[in-house]
Design goal:
Structural class of chain B: mainly alpha
Distance between the termini of chain B: 51 Å
Helix content of chain B: over 70%
Strand content of chain A: under 5%
CATH architecture of the largest domain in chain A: Orthogonal Bundle
CATH class of the largest domain in chain A: Mainly Alpha
Order of helices and strands of chain B: HHHHHH
Radius of gyration of chain B: 36 Å
Number of domains of chain A: 2
CATH topology of the largest domain in chain A: Rna Polymerase Sigma Factor, Chain: A
Oligomer: heterodimer
Distance between the termini of chain A: 61 Å
Largest sheet of chain A: none
Helix content of chain A: over 70%
Order of helices and strands of chain A: HHHHHHHH
Number of strands of chain B: 0
Shape of chain B: rod-shaped
Largest interface: A-B, 50 and 37 residues
């Protein structure tokens, strides 16, 4: 089965097997995108589950669909934002969900690298949502500009300028977090 | 400079290898003559290197499998529950009618059936009441399901 035959079988016959093919193809990507908004694994998984169920329901109202994921991404994003606004907790970011903790016997050089990664994620979750969204798409998902343009429904020029502003915001936030943590390290020494 | 604003986005594109040959030529020519943009380029390059070190905890297959439950299994579960509940209801209504119509039945089974019917309605009312109370305080009630 290909993506277009899966879409056709969903559109014409509302076939759950066709939809299951699409879920299997895109669930990893959906999870990663849900993490951008939700900031922790449990909420991201809930958002994915709900979004796929909503997408299946919405299929019956569609006449045509060229590509599944850009359409689904809008459902996923709305679902995540809806969940966030209802839960009314701004700080749902839990770093242990995002990457593996280091083992005890890990060499200290690797700990330093880990610290750096922790700091980068901390900074990312301090940024406004549209900056975080585009930075993760570019640097974790390694999306090309044309893919980002389709997913976010913005022209290529806007992708470039948003990435420029997002990187600037990242740098400023990174410098401010580094400045905040520096004195406490000195005090420990 | 107004000119520099135009090139800032292109500098990002240059770093990400996303520019057309014509754009590369334009932005390189600008970088040759503008020290401020060269400085900006170096700073953005450093930031990009940091961002490139990011990694992500891949989800387990078990987590991913939970994202989709076939509607067949949901329909099967729902129809099974409806059949059981429907069967119970039919039997109880039948028992009630028979109890009213037939006075020859000994009192013990009649009391048993009456207790079951009363118990069922008490539970039904309790469930409806609890649902109503929960709905009033449910923070997720406005979310489209």
């Amino acid at each position: 089965m290909t993506e277009s035959t899966a879409i056709q079988s969903c559109l014409k016959h509302r076939d759950p097997l066709g939809f299951e093919y699409l879920v299997k193809k895109y669930r990893r990507e959906a999870y990663m995108h849900a993490m951008i908004f939700m900031g922790n694994a449990e909420d991201a998984a809930d958002a994915c589950q709900e979004s796929f169920a909503r997408a299946f329901e919405a299929f019956s109202r569609l006449q045509t669909l060229d590509a599944f994921y850009p359409w689904f991404y809008r459902i996923l994003k709305n679902c995540c934002l809806n969940m966030l606004s209802r839960k009314k907790t701004s700080d749902r970011y839990r770093r242990q969900n995002i990457f593996h903790e280091m083992e005890e016997e890990t060499p200290s050089s690797l700990y330093e690298k880990q610290d750096e990664k922790v700091r980068i994620w901390d900074v990312l979750y301090k940024l406004p949502l549209n900056h975080r969204e585009i930075l993760i798409m570019k640097y974790i998902k390694e999306c090309r500009y044309d893919e980002i343009s389709v997913l976010l429904e913005i022209p290529r020029g806007t992708v470039m300028s948003r990435l420029y502003h997002a990187r600037k915001a990242f740098r400023e936030a990174y410098e401010s977090i580094t400045a905040e943590t520096q004195p406490s390290k000195e005090m420990i020494k | 400079m107004k000119d520099c604003e135009k090139y800032k986005a292109l500098i990002v594109g240059l770093m990400d290898n996303e520019l057309t040959p014509k754009e590369i030529h334009e932005v390189n020519a600008h970088l040759m003559r503008c020290g401020q943009c060269r400085e900006e380029y170096e700073q953005l390059k450093e930031t990009t290197e940091s961002l490139n070190t990011m990694s992500f905890n891949e989800p387990q297959d078990e987590v991913l499998r939970k994202f989709w439950k076939s509607p067949y299994s949901r329909w099967a579960r729902l129809s099974g529950m409806l059949l059981i509940a429907g069967g119970w209801l039919v039997l109880m209504v039948y028992g009630l009618i028979e109890m009213i119509r037939d006075n020859s039945e000994p009192p013990l089974p009649r009391i048993g059936i009456a207790a079951m019917i009363i118990g069922f309605f008490v539970l039904l009312i309790m469930v409806i009441r609890e649902r109503a109370v929960t709905y009033q305080s449910d923070p997720y009630k406005e979310i489209e399901r």
